[in-house]
Amino acid sequence: MDVGAGSCPYRNLLQHCEYKTQDFQQLTSSQLRNGSYGKIDYVCDASSIPVEDASFDVIICTEVLEHILEPIKLIEEFSRILKPGGKVLLSAPLGSGIHQEPHHYYGGFTPFWYKSILERNGFNEIRVEENRGSYAFFSQESIRFVASTKPWKLKMDIISRLLWLPIWIALSPILAIAIPIISRILDKYDAEKKFTVGYHVVAQKGFK
Name one GO biological process term (predicted). Predict the structure, then answer.
């Protein structure tokens, strides 16, 4: 089951198994036109999916938790619809700008949140891994800074824009090219990874 499947990016990768999808709305006609996605199987609240208990072997839920108003209820639902021994694969950003508004409710989930809530709902063998390290996070924000400070995007008068333009042109190669390249090299040596793009989580539902 792919929860919050959206455009169903994993469909082609999972053709060897029975792939079911859930989202709060159906795909648009333009998404369906080429036939590569297929329709959403369950159009419903992710915290109340109309299936029997212990229906699925695996649940995938990527970059969705921050868009769920009550994410703990979502984890409870995963515990209900997963078979004993089944696995859930989660990912969500630790920090991101507002997106897919108005359905963006949280700024990020920590390893402590994942472990606490998953254990409370009968999961074990919980593995939480950083989605890259601090320097990749800084690289992401550096690129975002360049994109968001284009002179024609800022609420400036014409004189301020003309003054800012040469500074922005001078900084852009450093912030959008040099820093990301250096950050990619340094990221593999990051020992703490307290700043990260997000986390990848795998957990198994217990047999009791």
Answer: methylation
Name residue 62's beta-bridge partners. 91
Look at residues 174, 182, 95, 93 and name the one whose alpha carbon lies nearest to residue 136.
182
Query: Three-state SS for 51?
Result: coil
With the C-alpha atoms ordered 142, 8, 40, 32, is the resulting torsion angle positive or negative?
A: positive
Q: CA 67 → CA 25, 92, 101, 174, 182, distances in Å?
A: 13, 10, 9, 33, 32
CA-nearest of 45, 49, 48, 40 to 19 is: 40
Does 142 share its domain with 175? yes
Contact residues for 76 (Cβ-Cβ < 8 A; gap 6+): 47, 121
Say if residue 77 is in the same domain as residue 164.
Answer: no
HSE-CB for 48 with a 13 A CA cutoff: 4
Q: Which residue has the higher pLDDT, 9 or 114?
A: 114
Residue type, 175: L
Place of tokens 């690289």: 139
pTM: 0.81
Looking at the structure, tell me whether residues 150 and 62 fall in a common domain: no
Query: Residue 56 is part of which domain span?
Result: 2-132+195-205
CATH at residue 36: 3.40.50.150
How many structural domains does the chain have?
2
Instruction: Encode pLDDT of 92-139 as tens digits.
Output: 988 777 877 888 888 889 999 999 999 999 999 999 998 888 888 889
